[in-house]
Amino acid sequence: MMKRKSFLGILLAIIESFVYVFFYQILSTNNIQIPQALLLYLIYMFIFGHYAMNDGLIWDEIKICGKAVFTYMITFTIIVPSSSLPTRRRWLIMLGIIMFFFSVFLSRTLRILARKFVAKRTMVLGTGYDALRYVSVAKRNRFAMTLVTGIVDLNNNCRFPEKFENLIPPNQKVFDSFPVINYNTFLEAVNKHQVDQVVVIAPELRPTSLDLIMKEIDEKVPSIKYSTQGDSLTNFSSQVQDLDGILLISTSRDEMHWYDRFIKRIIDIAAGIVGSIITLPLMLCIKIAYLRDGDHAPIIFKQTRIGLNGKPITIHKFRTMVPDAEAKLEELMRQNPAIHEEYKKNKKLVNDPRVTRIGKFLRHSSIDEFPQFFDVLAGRMSLIGPRPYLPKEKEDMSYFYKSIIKMKPGITGMWQANGRSNLTFLDRCKLDLYYYKNWSLWLDVVIVIKTFKAIIYGKGAI
Prior knowledge:
two-stranded antiparallel sheet; Rossmann fold; 6-stranded mixed beta sheet; 12 strands; single chain; 3 domains; 17 helices
């Protein structure tokens, strides 16, 4: 497999070289520096890992290519003679932008075409939420060099005294393609060398059980990965330290620096201005639509939510329900125990009878969220952040509450970009905690892109 990945990386570099020379000749009137310029480009792409063809998501590749191209442009700008700098700078920037998009596109195309031959045949140990989410991401993400071939249920095995979360019935397939097998069958598959990678995602595993698994598959599988045990310790700020042979993980979650908050606020103001301008004509159109349905109630819905540091804030949305929605909900829950149980678990109703005809469209398209741009401008909310929770949900948030309230709630966030209303309340809390622990400007960019995709395809909207 390593040979196949290396060949794919070499092929990627060769094709990019031809394309680079082609555009270099078109954009530049002086072709003397082509070898030096091309070599510099290839070196930076290699240093940042573009040709390694590692397992990952498209966002990782965009980040790698962006860093490499930016560094290349800065370096080449410095070494270009000052007499020709203005002219060179223009075509250099154009060439860098062209190669950035082409490199990302070519890498994605080659990975998809060669996925069947290059992807790691992966077995996932675990049947809980995190394990199934990993399987789901691997299935729909054609860019990654991961091909899940089976899921291993660790329950009912004498080796492990733990009781593991199991979201799927035994001996059934998941997502119509992944067989669920027991641990003994998995060991047989490993012994036959049919597995390239094992991914352990079972937070309930005790250290002794994890050590047992590692001993039984070590040297039989080229690659072994495992998730961290628990949510409270490890994040992207963590560092591995070697203290004279003792392996330590240094982790912390400091408050956002003032310059991080400043940059995030500037982005919020810019987004708030643009969003507010778009919202104004939408208000007129929605009001007319409601009037045509004989609904004369206000179209703006106000509600108190939990804001930064737990302070109550008022947020605004386009009304999507009947005017007396809260009273109607109480009545429905009294009359129907199933509705009461569904709302208690998810804080939402999938087929909510209170939603109006216009409201269904507003929710499906997420247009109902647009008035929150005014809240972003006012500083009550952020463009991206945790979900704005209701005060009555504080008790259900459990220990997640103290971390989530340290950031302003957002119009969009991790849960909207990763399933929207398909997720349970607990799943949404976990994702918001992840956002707090691993925040970065790049993560915000990824969330915005994924939110647009979720809206376009209508995934998870109710």
